[in-house]
Design a protein that fits this description.
This protein folds into two domains: about 300 residues, ABC transporter transmembrane region fold; about 90 residues, P-loop containing nucleotide triphosphate hydrolases (Rossmann fold, 3-Layer(aba) Sandwich). The longest helix has about 55 residues. The strands form three sheets. Strands 3-2-5-6 form a four-stranded antiparallel sheet, with helices on one face. By secondary structure, it is α+β, with helices and mostly antiparallel strands. Helix 4 runs antiparallel to helix 5 and helix 5 runs antiparallel to helix 9. The protein is built from eleven helices and nine strands.
Length: about 400
């Protein structure tokens, strides 16, 4: 949606400006130290005032970035929830019944929340981190190209960690999502049969099964979290080791007279500014890699649902509904309806009556396009039923014993 692109653009601009302030103020810190050592009071005060102004600017635009980013994430999540619910409603009746209600609930809640946390939130954060890396790298080259090269080579090493364990990350996330689906499906079934549970006093058995299912789900969650913790640990160790190496190189430049005390202070500030974004970038990459299977699953879910019904809408009944030599079988062998003929005229009332299994409900299901006829044809107003996508609002109500044609006629 356009509004979401607006919030993303606003966050992008705020990131750019706040990063500029954050990097520039590092040089003012060095100037303050050098002027203070040289006892140039006016220059020190001037640099301090500029430092304070740039700090305020950074804080202000970081706040604006957080607002725009939050709006973007909330907006995208809202649209995703709408798409998922619309996809569920657009599914064919038969296709819908192939899955348990708990699976749809899991997709609407757990999977949407996972995409929100690991994809939408990561998009703005990715640009935040990327801008900081670019600005700080440019500033380091401006300060001293040797420090810049050493810093970039060492501090970018952790970025390769998520890629090395990509398959494990995706597998762990997929297994956890599937475990949540299974757990919610079982809980939904148990709660649907609450009366039976009470009537037969099987609370303990149900609780035992719940604990088993819940333990499996939590183990999958722990596995996913454990891989994330291992990735963060390796990334942190490499980053801190790299930090000390760069610090030693900067100290050596001071000892050789290449750097002043202020330059050393600026270099350390820049390295601090770069080290955290690079660690964050490694975590962002891990999150984006892990969420890939879920995003793919939701995309496939929406594609299948969008193909569930095709055709035009039925506006009203002008003449009649006709079943012409309609035959249908659920399993392809046993015919429920065989050469069934039936005419329903507008303005009349009809009652389908017969023993269980004779095809009353099947006839209505065919009219509602829950299933397609095996042979023959159903027409409405003389037009083949298959050309309509929406006949539910005009179809009759049905019960387990009979069908009373009300609203349509």
């Amino acid at each position: 949606m356009k509004i979401n692109r607006f919030w993303f653009a606003g966050a992008w601009i705020c990131i750019f400006i706040s990063t500029f302030f954050a990097v520039t103020l590092q040089f003012f810190k060095g100037d303050i130290l050098d002027f203070a050592i040289q006892r140039e009071i006016q220059s020190t005060i001037k640099s301090a005032a500029l430092l304070f102004a740039f700090i305020l600017g950074e804080v202000l635009f970081v706040y604006c970035y957080n607002l725009f980013s939050a709006r973007f994430v909330v907006g995208c999540t809202k649209c995703l929830k709408q798409d998922i619910f619309k996809s569920i409603l657009n599914r064919g009746y038969v296709d819908y019944k192939e899955h348990q209600t708990g699976e749809y609930i899991a997709k609407y809640t757990n999977e949407v929340d996972a995409v929100k946390a690991r994809y939408f939130s990561m998009l703005t954060l990715f640009w935040n981190v990327l801008f900081k890396i670019i600005f700080v790298s440019a500033a380091l080259f401006w300060l001293d190209y040797r420090i810049a090269i050493i810093t970039l080579v060492l501090l970018t090493t952790p970025l390769y960690i998520p890629k090395l364990i990509e398959k494990r990350l995706q597998q762990a996330q997929t297994e956890y999502v599937q475990a949540v689906k299974n757990n919610l499906a079982k809980v939904n079934d148990w709660l649907s049969g609450f009366e039976i549970i009470k009537n037969f006093s099987i609370e303990e058995k149900i609780m035992a099964r719940f604990e088993e299912s819940n333990n499996i789900t939590m183990e999958k969650l722990f596995r996913d979290t454990q891989l994330g913790a291992i990735s963060k640990l390796i990334t942190a160790l490499i980053s801190y080791l790299s930090y000390f190496i760069v610090l030693a190189c900067a100290a050596w430049l001071v000892c050789t007279g290449t750097f002043s005390a202020g330059d050393f202070f600026v270099a350390i500030g820049m390295i601090d500014q770069l080290s955290y974004p690079l660690i964050s970038l490694a975590e962002i990459i891990r999150q984006l890699i892990a969420i890939k299977p879920v995003c793919k699953s939701m995309e496939e879910f929406s594609e299948i649902s969008s193909k569930a019904n095709t055709g035009s809408n039925l506006r009203k009944l002008d003449t009649d509904i006709r079943f012409k030599d309609v035959s249908f079988s659920y399993d392809g062998r046993t015919a429920i309806l065989q050469d069934f003929n039936f005419i329903i005229n507008k303005g009349s009332r009809y009652l389908l009556k017969g023993p269980s299994g004779c095809g009353k409900t099947t006839a209505i299901n065919l009219l509602l396009r829950y299933y397609e006829v095996g042979s023959g044809e159903i027409t409405i107003n003389g037009v083949p039923l298959k050309t309509f996508v929406n006949v539910k609002s005009y179809a009759p109500h049905k019960s387990c014993a009979a069908v009373h044609w009300r609203r349509l006629l």
